[in-house]
Amino acid sequence: MLTLYHAGNSVCSIKARLALEEAETEWTSAEIDLGAGEQFAPDYLRLNRAGVVPTLIDGDRVLTESSIIIDYVCSIATNTSLIPADPYEAARARHWGLRGLAMHAAVNTVSFASFGRLGLLKKSPEEREQFYAQMPDPEAATKRRDLVDNGVASPRVEGAMRTLRTMVKDIDTQLAGRPWLAGAEFSLADIAVAAYVYRSECVGLSTLWSDLPEMTEWWARLRARPAWDRTVGPWVNEALLARMDEEGRRAFDGVVADYLAA
Question: Residue span of the signal peptide, if any (predicted)?
Answer without folding.
Answer: none
